[in-house]
Amino acid sequence: MPAAKGTVQDMLSCCRSPSLRYRRLMTMTHARYDGYADWYDDFNAPFADANAVELADILGPGHGLCLDLGCGTGHNLDAIAATGRNVVGLDFSADQLRIASRRPYPFSRADAARLPFKDQAFRTVVAMWISTDVDDFAAVLRETARVLTPGGTFVFWGVHPCFNGPHIERGDDETRIIHRTYREAGWHTESPWWGHNIRRKVGMRHVPLAQFLNAFIAAGSPRAGGDPGAVRHSDPGHPDLTHNFTEVVPSRWA
Ligand SMILES: C[S@@+](CC[C@H](N)C(=O)[O-])C[C@H]1O[C@@H](n2cnc3c(N)ncnc32)[C@H](O)[C@@H]1O
Questions:
Q1: Which percentage of the chain shows pLDDT scores above 90?
Q2: Whose CA is nearest to atom 17 of ligand 1?
Q3: Exposed, middle or buried by CB within 10 Å (0-12, 13-18, 19+), for 140?
Q4: Which atom of ligand 1 is nearest to the CA of 93?
Q5: Could you list the residue range(s) of the whole structural domain that residue 76 is in?
């Protein structure tokens, strides 16, 4: 019997299978957080709690399905659900989902670059702290645009690539030295300026600012004459982050 329209089961039943040719072109996705989920859950909890108020403020009250893309251990799900939306968590790491699934929401283990959902399935997509972890950020944004309803909202929240990454040396007086590795896009597993937290464990994909912004543009431009979106800078409040993070609410894709 076909699943009821609008349910997660319904969306999953409509997943597209990539062609063989397309699959050959796809970037390999890694579950780098497998084995670190318990650690990540403890480490991130206070920061997620601190960000929850601002996340609720950005989203505002809403309804309909909301995808938490790269939901990790599920720290942001309650804050999203509290806005009135029906939240669905998705992550590539089974270990992260093991913890996330203690919360009472539907989940999907899948690659954010190949979402198992039909077109225009979600009114809202939230992506928190994933741009430095996904293997193909441009593909993730393309998929986000595909699964959003026309006029839907995408909240992206992540590090600013000019002030965070393997290229940044932080001075005692809060100055920043941007080293030559800024030009080296891609995975970095080592940096002399990293502390002893998350990046030493899972590495970091550095997406330089131009590549980062071009990925948003390539995924679909904002509606002509519509809301161009907003960018906020906030205090990171996070020991791993060497500078402000950026929140981009890039558009209401039409
Ligand atoms: C820094 S964590 C952020 C988790 C959560 N959004 C939060 O704010 O706590 C990055 C997450 O992205 C997930 N991830 C990385 N690549 C992914 C992909 N291709 N598809 C889905 N999730 C992915 C990781 O497994 C990890 O849980």
A1: 46
A2: 134
A3: buried
A4: 25
A5: 27-160+208-249
> How many structural domains comprise the chain?
1
pLDDT (tens digit per residue) in 79-128: 999 999 999 999 999 999 999 999 999 999 999 999 999 999 999 999 99
Task: Flag whether 45 is in a domain.
Answer: yes
Closest residue by Cα to atom 10, ligand 1, is 130
DSSP string, 65-131: EEEEET-TTSTTHHHHHTTT-EEEEEES-HHHHHHHTTSSS-EEE--TTS-SS-TT-EEEEEEES-T
Q: Which residues contact 84 (CB under 8 A, 6 or more apart)?
A: 61, 62, 63
Q: What confidence tens digit (pLDDT) does each residue in 168-215 have?
A: 888 888 788 889 889 899 999 988 888 777 888 889 999 998 888 888
**According to the model, what pLDDT value does residue 229 have?**
53
User: In CATH, what number is assigned to the domain containing residue 57?
Assistant: 3.40.50.150
User: Which atom of ligand 1 sits closest to the CA of residue 32?
Assistant: 25
How remote is the CA of residue 33 from the centroid of ligand 1, in Å? 8
Q: What is the pTM of this model?
A: 0.85
Residue 62 within any structural domain of the chain: yes
Q: Whose CA is nearest to atom 27 of ligand 1?
A: 72
Distance, CA 224 to ligand 1 centroid (Å)? 31
Digit-coded pLDDT (tens) for 43-86:
999 989 988 998 998 899 999 999 999 999 999 999 999 999 99
Specify the residue with its C-alpha closest to ligand 1, atom 14.
70
* Pocket of ligand 1, beta carbon within 6 A: 29, 33, 44, 48, 70-72, 75-76, 91-93, 96, 111-113, 128-130, 133-135
